[in-house]
Fold each of these.
Amino acid sequence: MSLTESSAADIAKTASFASRHLATLSNAARNDALTALHRALLDNQDSILAANARDVETASRAAKNGNLNQSILKRLDLSRPGKYADMLQGILNVRDLDDPVGKVTLKTLLDDGLVLERVSCPIGVLLIIFEARPEVIANIAALSIKSGNAAILKGGKESTESFVAISEVISEAISNTQVPRSSIQLVKTRDVVSSLLAQDSLIDLAIPRGSNDLVRYVKDNTKIPVLGHADGLCCAYLHFDANPDIAVKVIVDSKTDYPAACNALETLLVHEDALKTAFPRVAEALLSRGVSLRCDMPSKAALVESLPASQADLLLDATDSDYDTEFLDLTLAVKTISSTHSPDSAAEVAIEHINIHSSKHTNIVITGSKEIAERFMNSVDSAGVFWNASTRFADGMRYGFGTEVGISTNKIHTRGPVGLDGLTIYKYLIRGNGHGAGDYFEGEGGKKWKHEKLSL
Amino acid sequence: MSLTESSAADIAKTASFASRHLATLSNAARNDALTALHRALLDNQDSILAANARDVETASRAAKNGNLNQSILKRLDLSRPGKYADMLQGILNVRDLDDPVGKVTLKTLLDDGLVLERVSCPIGVLLIIFEARPEVIANIAALSIKSGNAAILKGGKESTESFVAISEVISEAISNTQVPRSSIQLVKTRDVVSSLLAQDSLIDLAIPRGSNDLVRYVKDNTKIPVLGHADGLCCAYLHFDANPDIAVKVIVDSKTDYPAACNALETLLVHEDALKTAFPRVAEALLSRGVSLRCDMPSKAALVESLPASQADLLLDATDSDYDTEFLDLTLAVKTISSTHSPDSAAEVAIEHINIHSSKHTNIVITGSKEIAERFMNSVDSAGVFWNASTRFADGMRYGFGTEVGISTNKIHTRGPVGLDGLTIYKYLIRGNGHGAGDYFEGEGGKKWKHEKLSL
């Protein structure tokens, strides 16, 4: 075993041990740790912001030399107005959420004196790997402690100074509470990550937060279950009967509110009968906000006819691969959906396109028809399916979950924005009085099951 | 791409397509398919049993030559009294369970006219790989259809004839219903399995049912999430205050009711103060039922003192590896837990042993103390934790879930016996009226979230 491997095994073992103690703490004890965490981050704001300023300075130089993306620089900066306060408030918000642990979700009388309960409990050990955003450390630490999980955190290299400063404050703060200090461990070197990804017997869940490449790297290099999304290819289907005001509002917000987000719109499917009704107004609004439209032939033809030449000249031709591309930018692929058989058959074509090409993150329909909307919501296979509402609503805070751990496009465990519930599992408890299972059988002398649902 | 790979891709694509249609069907339509399935298996009982008899004959020859385990032969035989009737009844039981699809589990008013719902839905495509038991085909087909999932099934080679016969009846039966015929696909050749395990973009969940080796093979060879358990190393902790009658009843049932089952007891931890009270009676009862006891020194010494020589002579010495062994046979490892500091500290030692050595399947405590029991149930990390009740209760039928898909020792998604709920996930639906997310922000002019919980 190399030094890195043995270090990864030690980290994972310590975390596993801490997780078992943490799992037995009361909500009050976990909340006390969050209060201490909040206090300490408030008290140490100046030194943390000073450390962050050093990261920002290094990153600014890299950005000037073209070695770093401007958006990373922006995400890195904790001194932006309101950001530190939001981070602090986030900890209190998590603290004040309902306890996700110890919820009894099923209770059955199996037989006299033999009661089955299903009770929520922490998952165990989380491995969270994230990129630049330094406030994620506080956020994730709060969510982990509140849900009774131990967490191993690895941040991006651009935020090293901020990360070290925040992590020291966190360790110090929780060491004065009942939460074991090693419940939150911070890994500083990159080379330990691949060894940690090999600890699948001790680490229960990996959560990569960052670029598609990071998520793919994690998914491809571990047997630990991975929670997250590699892609956010979201689609909208504009039905022929859509109210143009609603269409403009929803599509412009979906595309332009934050184009780099995973829940931003990337593909617009337009019913052919909407090409000359709602669509030109939508296109005009998008073009006037600087969105490049990559159109197929019918949609381009319709716009060339209805838009002024100054705008029509901006239109681009779509290629097939555009419908499989997450642009993360002010670019939108447009595809026309023909309705050969009936106006409604187009909805089926749109649904099929989405089920094949979208990343099952968030997809929306804009229509005046409740029937079409319900069919769309029933048939589209994705974490979020919305009717006449922006894709950008797919977010834990907006859903009312408090802070979110991330957004999952997994088909098991937890899907969509992941709040505290996504960090819990359950166990089955039976309380008996000397019951053996062999006494229950059909026929003479066999005991019978009661299987009576008890109120929770 | 080889022929096998293209065939696996075709099977997975067809299943994915079928799953999307299946997901939109009503409970009544899915139930109609189960009724048809039941009817067809009843009508074709003779030909299916004839096919099964051919499998049994081949297997009997192999068993005689020492090339097949007797327990496989036993599991293979569908003509054993009640087995076929149980299989048929199982289909009706699944049909009559509550619909697991379309359950609204969260409803929130985000803002006026903007409502969020979380609704249960099928996972999509299941790949189920199982060994000899032919009745599993009917069982899994019923569970898949009821939960709205498409399933690809691969059975063991010993049950090929039974499997082909049942599969033809199933395909024929559902082809006359609204459930797409390719919702249940049956794979006959073994070489296609590894190619199917590579279809992680189309197959959503793999469920291996059978030996530890099978489960490990599947886990090691796919990126598809795997639901199941490789091991069933279950432990019991006998506290010093245990009622001897309860101890005998629970431990004998746990060990001897069905030793080859994953929920059979493998390790008994005995508080040192129980060595001369409850333990000798437990040991006597086990020995008289032919159980080999592999004892550590203190437990052996206690038994040598209290048991007649004829029984004491049967005792074996435990090695360290016995505490990590799933015997699946009439063998039990016994370990003494000393209580150096206080009687209660032994419970902590037992809990730590279990958290390290058990397979997190089912672990039990036998004690008269509610406090010790609750601490044990709170601290032991496993799918099932029971107080004064046999490990053998860990079973979907016994829990009242109807038929089970298997037992999961995963830490995410679903844990313990998996019923229909384990085959569903959910999606978030939003119904709006032209809402954009960019309108919601702190400060002047920003809309405010309502986040009002609505009744379900």
Amino acid sequence: MNGAESLLRSLVACGVEVCFGNPGTSEMHFVAALDAVDGMRPVLGLFEGVVTGAADGYGRMAGKPAATLLHLGPGLTNGLANLHNARRASSPIVNIVGDHAASHSRYEAPLTSDIQGFARPVSQWIHASASALTVGADAARAVQASMEAPGQVATLILPADTAWSQADTVAAPLPLPSRAPVSGATIANIAALVQRGVKTAFLLRGDALQERALHAAGKIAAKTGARLLSDTFAPRLQRGAGRVPVERLPYFAEQVVEFLAGTELIVLVGAQPPVSFFAYPDKPSWLTPEGCRLAVLSHAHEDGTGALKALADVLGATGSIAGHSVRKHMEPPASGSLTPESIMRSVARHLPEHAIVTEESGMAMAYYGLTESAAPHDFLTLSGGAIGSMMALSIGAGIACPDRKIVNLLGDGSAMYTVQSLWTQAREQIDVVNVIYANRGYKILNNELKRVGASQDGARAASMFDLQDPSLDWVALAAGMGVEAVRTVSATDFDAAFASAMQRRGPMLIEALI
Amino acid sequence: MNGAESLLRSLVACGVEVCFGNPGTSEMHFVAALDAVDGMRPVLGLFEGVVTGAADGYGRMAGKPAATLLHLGPGLTNGLANLHNARRASSPIVNIVGDHAASHSRYEAPLTSDIQGFARPVSQWIHASASALTVGADAARAVQASMEAPGQVATLILPADTAWSQADTVAAPLPLPSRAPVSGATIANIAALVQRGVKTAFLLRGDALQERALHAAGKIAAKTGARLLSDTFAPRLQRGAGRVPVERLPYFAEQVVEFLAGTELIVLVGAQPPVSFFAYPDKPSWLTPEGCRLAVLSHAHEDGTGALKALADVLGATGSIAGHSVRKHMEPPASGSLTPESIMRSVARHLPEHAIVTEESGMAMAYYGLTESAAPHDFLTLSGGAIGSMMALSIGAGIACPDRKIVNLLGDGSAMYTVQSLWTQAREQIDVVNVIYANRGYKILNNELKRVGASQDGARAASMFDLQDPSLDWVALAAGMGVEAVRTVSATDFDAAFASAMQRRGPMLIEALI
């Protein structure tokens, strides 16, 4: 057995089942080992942003890591933006980067680069294997590190000689750390604060946004009148009919100020205090209202679900939940123009049970509320602000949850970033519908230009935000990568196309010209 | 005047004329300033790999920097692979990365990241502006740093508040450093070594591969019998009919060993000693023949052109050049199958004078010799091994040299990496023909799998190298981004399509199914 096989067998032994990759020469032995070892599904991406975005999606939905396989420094750098998103989402990922053989690194060949330097800002754990004899153990430790709560990017650098040299071990899995319980004292303290009857909001993130935790939070809210909030960009939220509704923090600073006005206590459950996404001249970044108290029920690495249950018990919040989200029938659109609102009405109208909805579009975000009354679903957002995430992410989500329909709500500007994702969607027959909000521009930036106080009357500035001249043809792009696609220009067209897409399996793209 | 305008006016004053960018909220004031300041051409890329690749191409052909404009850490990371290539090509680039306002950075908002950490491995110079009052001077210094020989990536980080706050200066250009002359003693020393009559090869790179330097090198070769060599991947080489021919080092280690066998003296002119691109089990990385002497005529930052001229004088090499490349008429292809060889015959046959040819395909590399007898042209290669360079690079080359035809020779795997380049080619009406060697696979990796000694009989390994299931449709992809395209399946079809492409202006794509 060589090092590559030792690595692969160890990963499989540790429960890693999927490897998203785009390998090169330095990773050849790893690739060869794929056929010698059962239990690892290789998935090719035609660009590394697809690879790391898919690993993020897999981590969010499977709750355990996939491996990546990236080719040296440049392969890693192409995947960094989506690793940044994954880090912000606390997704577990075993990020494997091939390197030159140790004997070769000293020669500064063209592809030599500072892999550790590139990896450090996105990795909570980094290790470069020193020998084929240790790669198995290194892999087991990487899996363990990736699962340290709430989930981490663990980067394992694999020099080519550690893959091709003789090895003899398959590492056994290391114990996975469980989430640290929140102390009774902390829970009593939060209970006392909440019981003062001040205007309270719980800001939830991570495990606290999944159904079991929300059930406890819903009881607390019913008992105390507290609001339940999520960040603007929560990595994963379970919502829709029958679920406990959570209010989403708005995007812009001044909207958040208004939204939180009067709040006297914010209880953080795996979340950070709210701050604005960007800074603007003369607008606040720190958004906790003046005089409002901040209290931590659980840190991100702690057991937020357990803490919410314990808090519910201490508060005697054992009654029924005040208001589950209720399924609402959406009327079919009157024939009329296609708008972001009409799109979301159709999504809410036809979304099947337990779909996974991803959002990477300001125009989708504006009508987020409409899907509150849709069938229950998981809602995934752009956690780190690095656009080009969701089309790739849906691949991993689809592989983690093959029986669930995925709906990507994508701006055209965002979707171009990792447009190569469509090819992998087609190859792996991901059950996904990509809805492209084709407004042919970085529309949000036109707004931002005004908001930052910059003037907006010049052609050169405007040229940096519009995606016309030429216009993108999404039906052609999808066809070029083997994905069936349709263009819609009216609300009724879109409604019919979306309804039909929900009835079929496999990847599809709907260009919504708005 | 705000900081953004100060920055922009200072860049223009320092001779920067083009800004390749994909800005976001934190760069809004810079974008707004584009309309207030004359003399800067903004060019939008729909992905930052396009932006930095274009800047590399501009730097290689213009011999001075363009600016980039990247959005925070993720925008930078998306551009890192092509900055790696640019660093290896010694291309001058002023790499501008927006950052959060200083007042915002402390809050760890979603897009906050370690920009300096990401930038360091590709940047010879990094500075983060501290105030709007200094951004002009920072820009002038960045331009100067980018022009330190042989050319550098100078990264300037621009917090949003330095753009929007009040400034009052336009910085004057700083003196550009001239290349250091090579001492007379070094030249005399090399002359003495060369005159011993041992089997000598000059390995040339950088300025030494441009026409004036090659003229001197050609005289030296005629006088001494020395061989003239270039690296396998030279950033820019002037060649073709009427030029002094240079032998290209082969790609694989064992080929280089054979190629250099018997060489007793290698004179380095701006080049490093030859090493293999990758390591392989039981194959050498260091490729200087045993017993061969290495001598440095000029380092990369020194005046290689002047050194070659001085050496020619000392050697009395004032006679004529032994063998200029001679224009050869290529026969039109007999009707027959389209092959990498037939493609290159057509390229050589129809290439117009002073075209710019880029290469990012192993199948193109295999027939490199055929264009030696084509019309004189500049030949640009993938200097850093990070694929996804040349389709983007051609944008910058085209903007630097608007009157020259560009021919990109691209593997399909490579071309997918920054496929968004086609859109910018269309918008800017770059006069470029993209030839896609559509073998529907990472063919080079199938070879590499065998070469590294890994077995190759498994379906999983094979799936990581083939781009079928589904096949890419390049005509559709090009149409989706506004580029006219045609598919060719025979040698005669390709020849006709390529000939016709040489007669028209503007971007085009020819898919060559091989």
Amino acid sequence: MRPLDVLQQSLHKRVLVEMKGGRSYRGVLDAFDQHLNLVLSSAEEVVKEVVTARPGLTLVRGDSIIYISP
Amino acid sequence: MRPLDVLQQSLHKRVLVEMKGGRSYRGVLDAFDQHLNLVLSSAEEVVKEVVTARPGLTLVRGDSIIYISP
Amino acid sequence: MRPLDVLQQSLHKRVLVEMKGGRSYRGVLDAFDQHLNLVLSSAEEVVKEVVTARPGLTLVRGDSIIYISP
Amino acid sequence: MRPLDVLQQSLHKRVLVEMKGGRSYRGVLDAFDQHLNLVLSSAEEVVKEVVTARPGLTLVRGDSIIYISP
Amino acid sequence: MRPLDVLQQSLHKRVLVEMKGGRSYRGVLDAFDQHLNLVLSSAEEVVKEVVTARPGLTLVRGDSIIYISP
Amino acid sequence: MRPLDVLQQSLHKRVLVEMKGGRSYRGVLDAFDQHLNLVLSSAEEVVKEVVTARPGLTLVRGDSIIYISP
Amino acid sequence: MRPLDVLQQSLHKRVLVEMKGGRSYRGVLDAFDQHLNLVLSSAEEVVKEVVTARPGLTLVRGDSIIYISP
């Protein structure tokens, strides 16, 4: 198994994405590429415990990501 | 679907672009490339809740972008 | 021996992963690639001495990693 | 249209270049390359609201640029 | 002589590895690659004058390294 | 004209090199490469308004450079 | 002349190496590569005006270097 295979298994499931700078997202993983750029749908963004809904498809840039977990 | 396909779907529509350093843009996505360099038209820039209009075409460098959402 | 051979030997064993920004993980190493992207299972995250369980498979991005040890 | 086409359209026109670290330039765009390295003529530099004239041709390194607008 | 030849000469000898962020390691250099990823055995980690033993093989990511000396 | 052509025109002339971190150099540009690594002769370094002469040839690493101007 | 030619001329001579983060080295340049990784012998490290001798061969990673001068 390679790390990106884990993302393949998480497709269309909810994931937690922790970002540099204290930001995180929860949303359904709709797409990813080898740079770990992600597309999330039905996402919520959390910054300093403030939750903001992000309707539609959000493209998150891979180089700001620290980890992705279910 | 690949992450850049989401940008293709957002072409000529308004997007929110969150940048590193507390800066964000709202504008119409007129172009993008594989580095996530973007061209926005009719853009507004928001820095610390101060909104500045950016008339004309603004080229935003991809490596400062955290996420792009509708 | 090459550095990645050490990761090969640690597969399916518990490792400590120290990250930039004062974050660390303990978990079972289930996968890795040449960028040091890792997959951990049964992981615990430690930030400022607060421990959070991360059930399921966690994908940790290699470029935030400082070191990996048993 | 690709993002660099916007720079092609801005050649020999005045642009605003916002840099990381709170620095910005206004000047005539005389050249650019694919790294967004720029050459500005008749440039003014603004740092913390202090304006300094930069006569001659100024080469601005692309990786410090956040955005370029008319 | 090329810089990596120095690492070749230090193989299986104790080295001091100074890291970004005020962290350093002392340990036996067991492996390295062209990115300066290192494997140390019998390592001690020093952060703010606190020494922690790191038994087993520690993989240190090259891009956090400032210098390596005997 | 390409951005590096401007450096070609500045060869053997005095330039101002503004660096990240509040450091700048004035000196004669004796060489450069495509990474914007520069060689300056008869250089003066300015850090927080303190000027230090740098006799001989100084090699400045391109990735710390913000801009180069006459 | 190319920038790395200056390093060739400095081989086996004492150089000053200024690093990011307020660290500098003085030592004899024994080797270098195209990434500006350097090997210094008989080196002294200076951090906040505290001088530490670094006997033996010190490998300094190029990406932390700001400039190298005689």
Amino acid sequence: MEDESGSLPPISDFSAWYNDVLWRAEIMDVRYPVKGLYVWYPFGFGLRRHTYAILRNLLDVSGHEETLFPLLIPKTEFMKEAEHIKGFEEEVYWVTHGGLSELDVPLALRPTSETAMYPMFALWVRSHADLPLRVYQIVNTFRYETKHTRPLIRLREITSFKEAHTVHATWDEAAAQVEEAIGLYTQFYDDLCIPVLISRRPDWDKFPGADYTMAVDALMPDGRTLQVGTVHHLGDHFSLTFDIAYEDAAGERQLAYQTCYGISERCIAAVIGIHGDDRGLVLPPKVAPVQVVIIPIIMKKMAEEVRAAAESLKQELEGLGLRTRIDDRDLRPGAKYYHWEMRGVPLRIEVGPRDLTAGTVVAATRDGEKMSLDRTRVSDEVPAILDAFGVRLRERAETRLAERIVPASDLAAASAAIETGVAVVHWCGDEQCAEALEKETNGSVLGTGVRSTHIGGGEGNCIVCGRPGSTLTVIARTY
Amino acid sequence: MEDESGSLPPISDFSAWYNDVLWRAEIMDVRYPVKGLYVWYPFGFGLRRHTYAILRNLLDVSGHEETLFPLLIPKTEFMKEAEHIKGFEEEVYWVTHGGLSELDVPLALRPTSETAMYPMFALWVRSHADLPLRVYQIVNTFRYETKHTRPLIRLREITSFKEAHTVHATWDEAAAQVEEAIGLYTQFYDDLCIPVLISRRPDWDKFPGADYTMAVDALMPDGRTLQVGTVHHLGDHFSLTFDIAYEDAAGERQLAYQTCYGISERCIAAVIGIHGDDRGLVLPPKVAPVQVVIIPIIMKKMAEEVRAAAESLKQELEGLGLRTRIDDRDLRPGAKYYHWEMRGVPLRIEVGPRDLTAGTVVAATRDGEKMSLDRTRVSDEVPAILDAFGVRLRERAETRLAERIVPASDLAAASAAIETGVAVVHWCGDEQCAEALEKETNGSVLGTGVRSTHIGGGEGNCIVCGRPGSTLTVIARTY
């Protein structure tokens, strides 16, 4: 399914690198004949599978239950929440015909599932004993994007939207759930070795129908931030509209409070972009579809012994639960190295006649550490080598992020900073000042109350109007 | 989320039982406001998760790779294969609008993915070295059903369609893949403790665009068969249309041959229907969301010790990989037994003060075997108890199937036989005879060449025209 002709552009030319690595590493095929729709290659799907298994597990062990709601939402339900409609009306796909006849009520392809789920929540929630309700689903959602589309990042079919929805007795309990969700997402991205910035989106950029929106942003190599998760406190907007109420301990009817939070396949885009290098993908061990590739070095002598040694090594590593593959294709070793480096495999182990004689194997990590291992020690050492590799990936990403977060005290400095990363400025919170700031710098206000070890606290003068007592805000060019 | 008022109809009133058990056991919520669309409750989704994990694993280990193609198929592609269009044109949902504007090309919601996948296969397959190609995906598909809809059985959104698609160098290799798929499906249903009938569908009932269709049918308690899997040899119909060809070893361009095979959430309907009883679900151990439920019997004395004993038992069983839950709700034990029997939990373990004193626990299987186990032997015995329970489920289902397969030598006998099951008749293969047979008996010809240990071989006289040398065929009332 691949063509290894030509070569990968350097990652410094990020947009070209990204488009190219997707097919060279067999993540997505972009040749599907509809704009904004893409095909997951099996290797890419393997990456998706392991990534979403982590997410699923985090949700399962923290009291969420997986469920599945219909894709099709009747227009009558979809149109119930006014702000929500306004936020989505230009982006919704409509099914108008079934077979050869027109439908009585058009059906929306869910852009997100509030209006599919909440009429059911109204039936499910009756008493305080039913709360909190925490469910999630991993589904395809749709947006009629008119902007430039890009695989995994801006799609018409978001194939892998994990959306969680919760219902609580009080506003404060919902706010606590928002914090828990932020914790889960931080843990998730930590497993992907990705440092993130958490901030509270400005009001004009919050989810349609939310009290407030917390966002998780990652910094891509081209200096633009990618929103890789959002957590919304919905207050009672939707519970009012959909009549989600419960009987409290005293027998009184009370309106419920809600949250919702989501992560899409942008998490995969972040893994690809943030860790990749000039030779292709570099995958965190926990999500790599192939964690260890074994390359038998076949010469004339001892060919059978080398093959057998590779097979026994594979079985030993699989016994440790490691996803291991032998590449025994009839190609020169260099071509195989190139192939698996492109696919980001964390560890390569070479087994040749000399190794057999010496009782060793050669191990090379994807970031260039090469070592000779005693064959009898492989099972002991490989897990630690993979762990250490993951730690290095995380540290490297953390360092790069820290380097590109730059405090700026005037607009020119802010403009310069967001050429390569994130500018930290003081902003008074006034929307007009934000407009001026965005216009002057050509960036966007990500949000306030930024949680990052790389950003301190402290008040200062608004970068636009100079008002003292303004708080720290991050701005960046965004995807 | 449940209401345990009223009681479950007896399974002899199957249609009422089925509708009721779906919500009482929290499998599906049927109150979603669009006909033919339903909501998976978390418990039902757990059953789906474990069932599809088996299916996924069977495909993975037999050389299939998981992938994911878009839901939306442009009309231009969809309309390319003439027979295929004819088979689906009355059932396809069409997306005609994106946001506020009309689309240039309407988009079909996939009823199945041939026309989404095969244009890509044409790009993926170039040389004989690319073959065989074997991929699968588990996705939602759509049919605008005008008939009576029914959860898990006849849906407008099939939420869980596992479709596999393969490409081969020759017709024979594709035929061999058909056999392999039948083997996988038989294994899958064996894991669900469900005996199936495999047969070759008559030509008028094959998949639109197939050379032939093999079908997997299960027999439901009301005597109707449920098609729970199909395997299609597509010949070169689609490879001609979509230009899927390869260069053979001699450098010649050759047309490829294809197969596809699918299983939907009907597999869950079969699990529910075939094993259920008057008290609710009876779930095979491999797919039960809760395999063991522990009921602490809380009295005044030793309440804390009982709670601690239940917790330590749970941890021990989870250590064996068993999905275990403690029901410590403030309800009387009888209400808890009822609750978990309805949900089909294979094994219930009761721990009370008397058990603590005696060093035992009471174990009761869902099919009514009750025993006292030495507490120290629980880890040794529970896995074997679950295995034996699964064996009994399978045997019970096998016996019931065998009893309801009845040879019939005249139309009256065939009519009578299909009131409760499947009639085995001789049929000459002539379509007119089949029409008469179906009309007279009010049944359908399932197919020929039936593979079942309950059906022998041997030729005979056609049940309609009397022609000698006719082969065995099964007929039944179908879902």
